[in-house]
Specification:
Length: 198
């Protein structure tokens, strides 16, 4: 009795229905002309079968549900809520949720987390945003670099460079927007310094 054949659109050749022996599949495939994609998949078959048989290290997961940790969570710090607004006078890397900050002269805030409030950068201070600011970044004479997302940027002095996204820009201080930076939802086609002086 002949085996039933089923056309496999992915391989572009017939496959045996109900039989799982690699030798029979190879014999059937080699009879028919193959597409390049099918040949590539056939050549990968021994690699895939071998990879499935290799032992793998077990990976544990840490799940956080409503502030409670489940699973393997050693080395994971669980915080609930947001940190209060704080003042930066040294170098600080913040990756959690904060409610704002003031960066003083000599201070450097690297924000990779979220700020749900304004961040003020005083003269001589430095701010680097790779996270999100749901508020206004006020540059009052410091150095501001934005590669993340900022709702509003107000620059009255200092230097601001934007490679990320800014919703609204205002102020008299210069802000340089790199090519591809997003301002008011639109990517900029070239380097642009704002405000434009006439």
């Amino acid at each position: 009795m002949r085996s039933k054949h089923l056309q496999d659109p992915f391989l572009g050749c017939d496959g045996l229905l109900g039989q799982h022996r690699v030798q029979q599949a190879v014999a059937l495939i080699s009879v028919r002309p193959m597409k390049a994609r099918a040949m590539h998949q056939l050549l990968l078959l021994p690699t895939l079968i071998g990879a499935a048989a290799l032992p793998r290290p077990s990976l544990a997961a840490c799940n956080i549900v409503e502030g409670k940790a489940y699973g393997e969570c050693s080395g994971v710090k669980v915080t609930s809520g947001e940190k209060r607004s704080f003042e930066v006078r040294t170098s600080v890397h913040e990756s959690s949720i904060i409610s704002g900050a003031i960066v003083h002269s000599g201070g450097f805030l690297r924000l990779s987390g979220i700020s749900n409030g304004d961040i003020v950068v005083n003269q001589g201070g430095r701010l680097e945003v790779t996270g999100v600011v749901n508020g206004t970044v006020h540059n009052l004479g410091g150095k501001v670099e934005i590669e993340g997302i900022v709702e509003r940027l107000h620059s009255s002095e200092g230097k601001a460079v934007v490679g990320g996204q800014v919703g609204i820009f205002n102020g008299t201080g210069p802000a340089t927007f790199k090519k591809g930076a997003i301002l008011q939802g639109q990517p900029l086609p070239r380097l642009e310094t704002l405000p434009k002086h006439q």
